[in-house]
Specification:
single chain; alpha+beta; Muramoyl-pentapeptide Carboxypeptidase, domain 2; binds zinc ion
């Protein structure tokens, strides 16, 4: 039990703690109805589930990061992509990179986004036809699709199956964007012969030549989820892509005149995130990871039901190691 004396003093301290420390410490998700809260780059995740480390058509990489968690719709989509790509695209299986932390939120390393359980990284390296060891999953490097020191795809590593995998991922209606290196976008623009109606969802961006990044829309009814405006209807195989092959995007930022040293960037605090994220941070978790892993029907609902039936289950569950429960502030009117 939490000592009630902690509440008054601990809550403000927690609210002033960098959010990445709080969310980076969560080992298990918040047992709340599944809900992405806030925006892809500023929010958290209630009711996340894990994709298993292994499936018939995927293996999760970098297990020590504990970022296999997502909104159930995203986890289901990644599983579906893995299965359909294996069956129809000649892509043997997905190596899955980061999704989100168990409760989403900012991370101690990497990624500005991936905070609400609607973003997933998938390697551009096909899954090998054997189960990788835990050690290999930590140390194996992904394959860049680019010719060294260029912005262009290396045809010795790029295959037609890569193109089919990417176009399939973009084709799903719930997928709003796929982030991919401009060189890869160019390759698809130049060579894809099939249906091009989803081409515009493939968004050229820095990085993303070792992996691609799937972003799904706010699920229907997710009222706390802040949506992003959809990409333009056009294919994007146009001036906006050509711009990436100029110097402008790659030029180092020019120092301004009278440049003072940049003020130290203030860390995002829990209180900077949507108000509901405080409840996500302090909500109880499940007793075990298995209870909230993809493959169990309605995992959150089952646990919530069990918790309601038995107060013992609730107290035995493992909330995040936070010093106290946080009173939930009223949502701001703008939310
Ligand atoms: Zn990503």
């Amino acid at each position: 039990m939490l000592a009630s004396g902690l509440l008054g003093s601990a809550a403000p301290v927690l609210a002033d703690q960098p959010a990445k420390q709080i969310f980076g410490a969560a080992k298990l998700p918040a047992i709340l109805p599944p809900s992405p809260i806030g925006f892809y780059s500023k929010g958290c995740l209630a009711g996340g589930i894990a994709i298993p480390n292994d499936g018939a058509t995927w293996q999760a990489m970098r297990p020590s990061r504990n970022r296999r968690w997502g909104h159930p719709d995203l986890v289901a989509l990644v599983e579906r992509l893995s299965r359909e790509a294996a069956a129809q695209d000649g892509w043997p299986g997905l190596l899955i990179g980061d999704i989100s932390q168990p409760r989403g939120g900012p991370m101690l390393s990497g990624h500005a986004s991936h905070q609400v359980g609607l973003d997933a990284d998938v390697w551009l390296t096909p899954m090998p036809n054997r189960t990788l060891s835990a050690q290999e999953r930590e140390s194996l490097s992904a394959t860049s699709m680019l010719k060294p020191n260029t912005l262009y795809v290396d045809d010795r590593v790029w295959t037609a199956a890569h193109a089919r995998l990417l176009m399939r991922a973009a084709s799903y209606p719930e997928v709003e964007r796929i982030f991919i290196h401009p060189g890869i976008k160019k390759k698809l623009c130049d060579t894809w012969q099939g249906d091009r109606s989803a081409m515009g969802k493939l968004r050229p961006y820095y990085g993303h030549h070792y992996h691609f990044h799937i972003r799904i829309k706010c699920p229907p009814g997710a009222n706390n989820c802040r949506s992003q405006s959809p990409p333009a209807q056009s294919s994007g195989c146009d001036k906006s892509l050509a711009w990436w092959f100029t110097d402008e995007p790659w030029a180092p930022a020019k120092p301004k005149k009278n440049d003072k040293p940049a003020p130290k960037k203030r860390e995002i605090q829990l209180s900077d995130l949507p108000a509901a994220c405080a409840a996500v941070a302090s909500a109880p978790g499940p007793a075990t990871e298995a209870q909230v892993t993809f493959g169990t029907a309605d995992p959150i609902g089952r646990i919530a039901g069990a918790n309601a039936a038995s107060a013992v289950t609730a107290s035995a569950s493992a909330p995040m190691p936070v010093p106290g429960r946080i009173p939930v502030p009223k949502p701001r009117p703008s939310n």
